[in-house]
Amino acid sequence: MDWVVLSATGRLARVKLEESPWKARATQPNTRVDHDVIASTAPAVGGEVGAVTASGTAYLINADACEELAPGGPWSLWNGHLADSLVAAGEHVVGLFSLDLDAPPLALATREGVVKRVVPEYKGWDSWEVMAVKDGDQIVGAAHASDTDELAFVTVEAQLLRLSAREVRPQGRAAGGMAGIKLAPGSDVIFFTAVAKDDRDDAIVATLASGGDSAATMKITPFLDYPAKGRATSGVRTHRFLKGQDHLGLAWVGIPPVRACDSTGAPRNLPSAQDRRDATGSKVYGPFYAFG
Fold first, then answer.
1. Is 124 left (phi over 0), alpha (psi -120 to 50) or beta?
2. Cross-strand pairs, 162
3. Maximum distance among all alpha carbons in the chain?
4. Full-model pTM
5. Rounded distance, CA 118 to CA 122, Å?
6. Cβ density class 209-245: b for 16+ within 10 Å, e for less
7. Which residues, listed in sequence order, are joined to residue 208 by a DSSP beta bridge?
8. How deeply is 248 buried, as exposed, middle or buried, from its count of CB atoms within 10 A (0-12, 13-18, 19+)?
9. What angle do CA 247, 249, 250 make, to 5 degrees?
10. Burial class (CB in 10 A: 0-12, 13-18, 19+), 79
11. At residue 36, what are phi and psi to the nearest 5 degrees?
12. What is the CA radius of gyration of the chain?
């Protein structure tokens, strides 16, 4: 099966695999290369995948036009197309999705905490709306989620909400979604994804806290350490700030190992030790751009 992969630096490639790229990567040697941090993946259907932008628009992407990677890895996407160059000017791609009409609903969440699961619908369009996004808001993440899966939100103030996808009923393309996570004044969602039921036991949460007067600290915690809460609640604290720290710069939830890069796509080293969910983490140095 062909899978399309989106890097954290916004580049696209494809790879032939019998399982998802996340699971395939977990079994590969941890050899790091530039532009190897993954942000999103989707299986190609008829040689095509969908790409969701921050505005709530979906675009058709031709998988055959993407650079092919060797299945055994390591996967460097440095030579891949920039995803934003394949959509309308001014649009920014935040995730990929399958065009299979039998796939689970596509879950989307915005910076202001709105969430939606959209009923699969594709009629040969080159682009179409998947979520009505309010002015000033934008989508921060997208992933397929069945009723038995869970949704994960992480905010800039270090709150994590683990939510059953069943609580977000699927809606049509034009709907604007519903309240997902309750935000404190001035807070934003910085990361959103779905965690499949089969991946729940293995999934981890990675967070990076920073501030102008303190070194950054990073920690990794099992996803199951976070209690599930109801929709429109604020979740629980996922990172305790040190003096001088005032926000999360990065967050990620997924199948280990987590990787990091700087803005050029170059690998960044991370501590490997796990910590409790409200710990301060371990100090890290240098510029960080993304986890994945």
1. left
2. 152, 228
3. 53
4. 0.96
5. 12
6. bbbeeeebbbbbbbbbbbeebebeebbbebbbbbeeb
7. 218, 250
8. buried
9. 130
10. exposed
11. -110, 5
12. 18
Q: Per the structure block, which two tokens stand in for 8?
A: 């954290």
57: which 2 tokens?
Answer: 């628009």
Three-class DSSP category at 25: helix
151 neighbors 144 (Cβ within 8 angstroms): no
Say how far apart CA 23 and CA 217 lie, in whole Å: 27
Token pair 């709306």 is at which residue?
A: 129
Taken as a whole, the chain contains a residue count of: 292
From first to last of its 292 residues, what are the pLDDT tens digits of the chain? Answer: 999 999 999 999 999 999 999 999 999 888 999 999 999 999 999 999 999 999 999 999 999 989 999 999 899 999 999 999 999 999 999 999 999 999 999 999 999 999 999 998 888 899 999 999 999 999 999 999 999 999 999 999 999 999 999 999 999 988 999 999 999 999 999 999 999 999 999 999 999 999 987 789 999 999 999 999 999 999 999 999 999 999 999 999 999 999 999 999 999 999 988 899 999 999 999 899 999 9
